[in-house]
Amino acid sequence: MLIFFRLLRICLVSLRYRLDELVLSTIRHPIAAGLLRIVRFGRPPKLERGVRLRLALESLGPIFVKFGQLLSTRRDLIPLDVAQELALLQDRVPPFPSSVAIKTIEQSLGESPYTLFKHFETDPVASASIAQVHFAVLHDGREVAVKVLRPGMRDIIEKDLALMRVLAALVERLLPDGRRLKPREVVAEFNNYLHDELDLIREAANCSQLRRNFAPETGRSHLLIVPEVMWDYCATNVFTMERMSGIQVSKIDRLREAGIDIKRLARSGVEIFFTQVFTDGFFHADMHPGNIYVSDDPKTLGRYIALDFGIVGSLSEFDKNYLAQNFLAFFRRDYRRVAQLHIESGWVPPTTREVELEGAVRAVCEPYFDRPLAEISLGQVLLRLFQTSRRFNVEIQPQLVLLQKTLLNVEGMGRELDPELDLWQTAKPYLEKWMHQRVGLEALRERLKAESGQWAQMLPELPRLVHAQLSRPDTAPKLAQEIEQLRRSQEQANRVLMAIAALGAAALGIALWALTR
């Protein structure tokens, strides 16, 4: 019954924001055209289609807002105007009662927050679709932020996801472009993201890993600050971390007032991104301005601060190598190499003609290179490449879609800080250095070092294994004899088949002679 009422509400909201018109306008059929005239009542909607979709998702609640945010990253699947409008969705919803948050903490951690903490702020400081945050102070005086999951989120998510699957199936069947849009795959991807975000222990582990990747011993601590996880105060629905304070990266006037070098900040953001992707293969994949702050503390002035670690991306060594070579080929305008990389990766059918793919890649990239480098969007080039690759049935990997979304965020943030930021020139030396480390003597030394532990175990066994191998009887004569027997058997079989064929031909000749008499 609850599902029925939820479905009814979705239908009413869809009608209110004329989403029926949005669907019918994409169907090229006389019946659809007639229905479109009826639902419009002779007048088209006043608002643009992207605006109507965004308002509808906001009305349907947090889960649909999250879904809209995911859709905004899939610019390879949906129209650009819709994607840009959905990117405006704000992940801010009214907070749930503090009494519920207190009860959740007590049930999860075994004690009241007023006992666990020296001080606990009842009123939340931030509220999002999945959780809300309260400030607190530990008994040793450290200030922390306590993230509490919204109650009943799993049940709500499962019900809404069930409805989304039904709607996705309808879109796939009814819209002419439905199969290409892959609505069911998008819902499945959304399902994975949501369930990852619902486990705050997973988010805490992501935070801990990222903090370790930028620890002082790595030599990168001057780039990014990641809060410390307070593991004694964490559970699947409670995440307690070091409290961070700073200036939101989008508040450029405040950053200048604090004496922060804006141009340097923009370049540091690019360096952080490429370090996470190509050095660690582990990157913060939700780098919109609401999750990125800049320290105004004199001790750490100008360093980025990362928050919200529910969505992270991971890349294998193969992915990193593929991406680095692709980017470098772009920089050098070596379109043949880009085509070869796509074929070698196995992401296009083996029957793909290299020359055709090269021509398609050239058509995507060449118009960008006619502009000044500072005006070229690396994220948009990657997006256009994904869109073009559909023609060649390229299977776009989920981790690369997440990377593309993050790259667009980073690039947009960098250009907002410094409109003259040349992402290509900032990234190219880094990628060239990375590739040199991968294929040079340093890379060989690092690989040998990484494998040395295994070799230490295997080397003592080598003399015994060599002796055992040499002590085995020589099987070569026996193998040669078996091969000779097999050859003779094959020759005999061939002679029999030739005899049968000759007899058949003779019989056929006799039959034809008899018929012609």
Provide the structure class: alpha+beta
Number of helices: 23
The helix content is 55-70%
Gyration radius, in Å: 31 Å
Low-confidence stretches: none
How many domains comprise the coordinates? 4
Give the N-to-C terminal Cα separation: 86 Å
Choose one word for the global shape.
globular
Q: What is the mean predicted local confidence, pLDDT?
A: 78
Give the total of beta strands. Answer: 11
Largest sheet: 5 strands, antiparallel
Q: Strand-residue fraction? A: 5-15%
Keywords: ATP-binding, Cell inner membrane, Cell membrane, Kinase, Membrane, Nucleotide-binding, Transferase, Transmembrane, Transmembrane helix, Ubiquinone biosynthesis
Transmembrane segments: 496-515
Protein name: 2-octaprenylphenol hydroxylase
GO biological process, one term: ubiquinone biosynthetic process
Structure description:
The protein is α+β, with helices and mostly antiparallel strands and 517 residues long. It has four domains: 1-91, no CATH class; 92-243, no CATH class; 314-442, no CATH class; 457-499, no CATH class. It is built from 23 helices and eleven strands. The strands form three sheets. Strands 1, 2, 3, 4 and 6 form a five-stranded antiparallel beta sheet that branches. Strands 5-10-9-7 form a four-stranded mixed beta sheet. The protein has a two-stranded antiparallel sheet with strand order 8-11. Strand 3 (131-137) and strand 4 (143-149) form a beta hairpin. Helix 15 packs across helix 20. The mean pLDDT is 78.
